[in-house]
Design a protein that fits this description.
- The structure is a single chain.
- By secondary structure, the chain is of the alpha/beta class.
- The protein is built from 14 helices and eleven strands.
- The chain has a seven-stranded mixed β-sheet, sandwiched between helices.
- Helix 7 runs parallel beside helix 11.
- The N and C termini lie far apart (50 Å).
- The mean pLDDT is 92.
Length: 351
Amino acid sequence: MVEQILITAGDVTASEILIDPGVIAAPRPAVFLPKSERRRRVAILTQPTVADCARDIARAIGDAYETGVHVVPDREAAKTFAVAEQTVAWMNSLGLTRHDTIIGIGGGAVTDLAGFVAATYLRGVEAVLVPTTLLGAVDAAIGGKTAVNVDGKNLVGVFRHPSRVVIDTETLASLPRDILREGAAEALKAGLIADVELVELYERHGLDAPLADVVSRAVRVKAQVVSDDFEEHAGRAILNYGHTIGHGVETVAGLAHGHAVAVGMVAAGEVSTQLCGFAENARQRAVIEQLGLPTSAPGVDREAVLRSVALDKKRDEHGLRMVLLEEIGAPIVAPVDADAVDVGLAAIGLG
């Protein structure tokens, strides 16, 4: 059964999320492409590990549209201006127009790149995103935040929502456990900020928590937060819980994104305890450990992490801000000083 979740801007639907088990193995063109009378071509961006799936989808829609597949590097190597430029040149050769569609199939880096290129090519082309990792499904592909990396993580980007996101939970269930574990960090984050029952699912089952429930709950959290704050003017920043220090560790150490977020949540939990009286810090740490995620970053260059943290997107004219928890399900965005950051760094072995 297909589950539909909507992101709205007022009374208008900005993005449609379809959770459709099995749709990648048996692609149906109508699922991957919203109706359009003017579309003639479809440009598919993908990564090496799922290129065969992308070609199967291309064949499924090839009777109706001229279709091409372009393979970009895995992970963060895809999110550069150089790769974006190569992709645009390829789309030029395909003859893509403003009425056509770009589909991004792969992990979060690919969907980030596809969204960024779609948002900027010809000043905006329709994007459809098909995340094939849990991290992409519950976070990266949803919400319209597109970006590439320059010095820091996601520092160059634009808000533009995909018209549709297609999530195949059967594909996610077949992921290697290390990839599933990485995505669990972002799903757990959704629970920590807004859905205690999602946290409890992971507490009861660990990494074997029912994937259909995890995905549905995490996606609903993100869709609601984004709908309430469409372009991150205020409340949407809570989705960055664990990301302020986590992104710094990721940038400096080259840690996988989900692992870095887990480390960042440990740091944020300690700062939350100090500044907000967060009494469930031990509970948070226990479930992170239960999922097999890292809780520290020993040996990482502390000063380099601090320099990266200083570039965090949540900074304003008053300085750095962090997402903190007063309790599970009750996040706030608060200014933090150097002493608070030191508390967080010490909690992850960078004291």
